[in-house]
Amino acid sequence: MNARLVKLAVALGTLALTTSSTTKTNALETQESQKLAQVSNPQTSTTTADVRIDGSSTVYPITQAIAKQFESEQNKKVSVNISGTSGGFEKFCAGQTDISNASRPILKAEIEACRKNGVRFIELPIAFDALTIVVHPQNNWAKDITTAELKKMWEPAAQGKITSWNQVRASWPNRPLKLFGAGNKSGTFDYFTEATVGKTRASRTDYTASEDDEVIANGVSKDPNALGYFGYAYYEEHKGKLKVLAVDSGKGAVLPSRETVEKAKYQPLSRPLFIYVNPWGAQNKEVVYKFVNFYVDKAPKVASSVGYVPLPTEVYRIDHVHLNNGKVGTVFGGEAQLNLTLAEVLRKQKQF
To answer: Is residue 343 part of a domain?
Structure first.
């Protein structure tokens, strides 16, 4: 993410958090994050773009970097916006965008919405992410956290009740627990709740929520009592002002990293990332095909550079085949799936 974008995002994120300090409802916080995404995005508007993209903030760093390269080399306009995975699919299935960034597979209800609107899609996995738990650097009591403790923090029953750190782990201090997390239109929200609470979209709501991970990173970095979660690229971007926690799912505490993701040790918080493409409905079909082929070529290097884990080379080869043969559909059955590994994604792609 370029320096100007990061500075503007941080500045606006700070303003949003400050002005909403007495109003903590998810609705208002979602509005703020959507405004931030619109203002902080330097890309051209969707109405004048050759390629229109929206969706996940987790996938955004990869797509935005590749879009800039494509614009520079091809003299074409690419619009990249953030509205969360669910928000992105709403636009995609309404035919308003050509590509949807997604931090989870498309769901049955979204597949049906696309079908009703005559929107066909090609599913292309592009990287792996380690969903990352972060705290403020001044937090000197927490080095790791269990998935059971994350559930205790985030489950709906915790709302208004689990409000201090020592309620989560007795050895932690009696300090207020301030939570920052994904908004309910985010694929990260869907995945995190399934992985920790055990049910998709089951979460307490008394926390600072945003579909834009810059808002979460900025909030945690300013509050010594805070804890938040988002994609690993945002920790990489802000590691100087955040501290990452190792996660213990029953086999010992494991830090997120390329190695722990590749070896399937960082579970259940490792997950594949996707783009969904509808070239048939595009205003500039030829340009969309050209951009997505360019994207798949650049994805391994760019994903690695922003902090994500590239997929096996064979997956990208299959992506090219599926794109150019018009392979419509999903290999994930329209359902959330936990504990997917690099090998499992490759196996599914080969069988598709």
So the answer is: yes
